[in-house]
Amino acid sequence: MSELYQKGFSQNRELSWLQFNDRVLSEARDESVPLLERLKFIEIFTSNLDEFFMIRVGSLFDIMNANPEQIDNKSGMTPREQLRRIFEAVRPLYQKREQIFNEVEKQLRVRDIFHLSFPELAENERKCVKQYFKASIEPILSPQIVDVQHPFPHLANKVIHIGVMLKHKNREIFGVIPVPEALPDVFYLPGAHARYIRVENIILEYAEQLFSPYAVAEKVVFAVTRNADVNPDDEVFAEEVDFRKRMKKVLGRRRRLAPVRLELSAPISENFTQYFMEKLGLAKAQIYTTTTPLKMKYVYGLGGKLPKTEQEAMSYPKFMPVWPGRIRKGESIIRQIEKSDLLLAYPFESMEPFLQLLKEASEDPSVVSIKITIYRLASKAKLVEHLCAAAENGKSVTVLIELRARFDEQNNIDWSERLEEAGCNIIYGFDFYKVHSKVCLITRNGKNGVEYITQVGTGNYNENTAKLYTDLSLITSNQQIGADAAEFFKNMSIANLQGHYHHLLVAPVSLKSTVLHLMDREIAKGQAGKIFIKINSLTDAEIIDKLSQASCAGVSVRMVIRGICCLLPGIPGKTENIQISSVVGRYLEHSRIYCFGEGADEQMYISSADFMTRNTERRVEAACPIYDEKCRAKIHRIMETLEYDTRKARVLMADGTYVEKDQSREPLDSQQFLMALAEQEAVRQEAAPQPEGKKGGLFQALRRLLGR
């Protein structure tokens, strides 16, 4: 097969990702979004871009050094060409962020929320800041000069520094002050209004005092971004047989890898720029100047400094995930699951029924074992408490915890130690394959022998992100699915990636091949074929090629892809029957749904896997069929709502750009609609339980909007 880029319907994954992050930034421009939330979208864009440079740009530098002529199969570009295009594409995003940030700051000032520069401080405020500097900042600073006796220091990844160019006896000397991470990001000035100044700007103001008797010729706030793409399977770590210790070494090495970006708070002289370039090994294309804060985590605490009425006026209306209408409170979750499958839709519905299921299982004398795969957890986790309680109650508890969940490694190391102390059996998966599946299996002694309750989800067992990400979680007493889950955990325990499953699709052994087979089934139907896919990213070349084949056969292909999409739709003779949209809103779209066919012939799955080669070939993933008709109807409701969305959805065009949907239709924000629907169903269930499956008024309204 020729390279995919030669077929003319694919695009580079990195440039596609930048388009996604641009859509995140566009939410900060949307005046219908409350002001404090707009500020948070700027922070999300910023932290996304940080990770992009650390991982994707860092990886491209590694590839360029190892194999400079390697061709990207989606765009035909070498690593160097991709990096050049990335650096060019990022620069206008910095400008756009700065423009939006300044506009949001202006509107905040109308609300008496002032993010101040030092010259804006009133005289009494300057005295207050100086006292704070002398008492709380200066004593813990470590200014350093660079000369023969003082070598150029290691500049830690994404740590803010103050850089100064000093004059001393006709010599220029570089000085640097790391901003201690123990310091708060901002200093709030006393008074009724929210007035604050960033701590790095306070240190910048007093830099001359810190380097006396040198004269400060130039000074700037800066941060270095380093390559963080460290592979724990590299030979350098091979001698460490304890996997937890190996991961601790990985984290140590990550802090010292090569720089890939330099951010400056203000323009500096050519001489100063050249000094940075020489010391850090960077090209000018990798240096970005911005007046927007280099770190913005402080925005999450800003609301707490405001009166409650002001905070509420500038934030999303409060929403707490509701208790699902199909589950009766106060009754055994296990007994209810035995009668009917349950599908939880986060964050509209609460994770609590699943947590209560685990708590019940930890205390149930008939439960023999609990097995679970864990990729990311909250820093405080009821789930861990229930697993530990189960082990302490004599249950056999097996936890496969993935220590290589990027940027959550230390958290997972800590939890693995806690679980092990409680008596849980801890396993870590495979060399070269991350375990990304979301599977939990409860085994019980039933009336007719061993019985299973299985949970399979699209998202992590993270109680915090379950309130922020849209995900699906199926809990079923289907014994055939349970038998597959039991086989899955047996294979994980003996490091067997090639297991055989009848119902679950498991990567790397059967998920991709089955997806391709189901696409072929639809291709054979021609114009009667139907495919619906909801995922976060699409990069797998074989799947992209198969989708084009489906389009050419007349199959209707509808896709909702939040982020990276390397397939270009709407190209005549290649992808004209493919429609792709992306939804970026209040919550992070994270669920994965695969549907092939329609009506009685439809095969529907929820999955942990995106259609990226890393997921389909280099990770352990699981997709679960949905057999229960009520659960299928619920997923169809979600699919239809997402496809109708005219407020937050954007349509991918053949040139790789995204445009708004037809605004002549009635406006609908899919996430707002699903929130309201969940609340309505919960209220109706509490007031007067109705027959299962009866649709609420909001869903009927959506049906009318859809013309069905």
Structure report:
By secondary structure, this protein is of the alpha/beta class. It is built from 21 helices and 27 strands. The strands form four sheets. Strands 14, 18, 19, 20, 21, 23, 24, 25, 26 and 27 form a ten-stranded mixed beta sheet that branches. Strands 10, 11, 12, 13, 15, 16, 17 and 22 form an eight-stranded mixed beta sheet that branches. Helix 14 links the parallel strand 12 and strand 13. The longest helix is centred in the first third of the chain and has 32 residues. The radius of gyration is 27 Å and the shape is globular.
Question: Brief overview, please?
Answer:
The protein is of the alpha/beta class and 708 residues long. The strands form 4 sheets. Strands 14, 18, 19, 20, 21, 23, 24, 25, 26 and 27 form a 10-stranded mixed sheet that branches.
Which labels suit this protein?
alpha/beta, single chain, 8-stranded mixed sheet, 21 helices
Arithmetic mean pLDDT? 91
Rounded radius of gyration (Å): 27 Å
Strand content: 15-25%
Beta strand count: 27
Helix content: 25-40%
Structural class: alpha/beta
The dominant shape is globular
Q: Would you identify the regions where 5 or more consecutive residues have pLDDT less than 50?
A: 232-241, 689-698
Number of helices: 21
Biggest beta sheet summary: 10 strands, mixed
> How far is the N terminus from the C terminus?
42 Å
